[in-house]
């Protein structure tokens, strides 16, 4: 494999000149620059990015740590991060932590040891001290990391409240919230919105804790409907839980939305193409990823940031699992 010395020899210049061309630093005559680039092409020279990042003190790498890339919510988030990072000349290193803190810490170590310029993190553990006092900027995406770390998220509380008020307006008299995992901020906030709306309306309600997972949620919804067959509305903590609820109800011969209404959260593509299509609270997933990446690049390039928390609005999309007005 060609080295920088081979390029210098082929171009008839010093190694330092080749380095200046590669790092776009210092003055190099146009003819010399052309000769160096011609030598690079002829030799198929590939710069050593580790050495280059040490020289430039910038690897142009952004670490993206996500908890579960099999959940359709996260690939859309990653797509937005990668689009913006690429636009600004950064390469994204995607890390799937499985919500495992040991694995997450391993990825954090690898990224920092490889001089990542910054991190975007969706973690299952709030107040995670591993991310404090790093020598690179961090942005928390979807879930808070620590009060000192900027965050980009959707309005989880407002979405939970909106979903619940909607079910009540659609005539539900006994509603359940099949929520995401405990101690997870988005799930906690959606649940808080649900409880506040149900209590304010004086509508009886019940809460079941599940996971953001179809199979587990099918079991939880089955137990719920066995125990409380009079449930006529379910606010699901995310769209995968909503799919599980609809599946269990239809297998039991419960008609949707006539006997049971279901509303989800996220707005993943599956919610629209599932039959019946799922009424849901749509998160601005792509915009969240864009916002987090632009925020991180501002921090990397020391442009400062306007606010520590960016909470983006959600919207309700009516489909076939809830009753139409009128
Ligand atoms: O579906 C995955 C869930 O985890 C989403 O609701 C998202 O907000 C994340 O918290």
From TrEMBL:
Organism: Polycladomyces zharkentensis
Keyword DNA-binding assigned: yes
CDD domains linked: HTH_LacI, PBP1_Qymf-like
Molecular-function GO terms, alphabetical: DNA binding
Residue ranges constituting the HTH lacI-type domain according to the UniProt record: 2-56
Gene3D superfamilies (UniProt xref): 3.40.50.2300, lambda repressor-like DNA-binding domains (1.10.260.40)
Pfam families: LacI, Peripla_BP_1
Entry keyword set: DNA-binding, Repressor, Transcription, Transcription regulation
Name the UniProt record assigns to this protein: LacI family DNA-binding transcriptional regulator
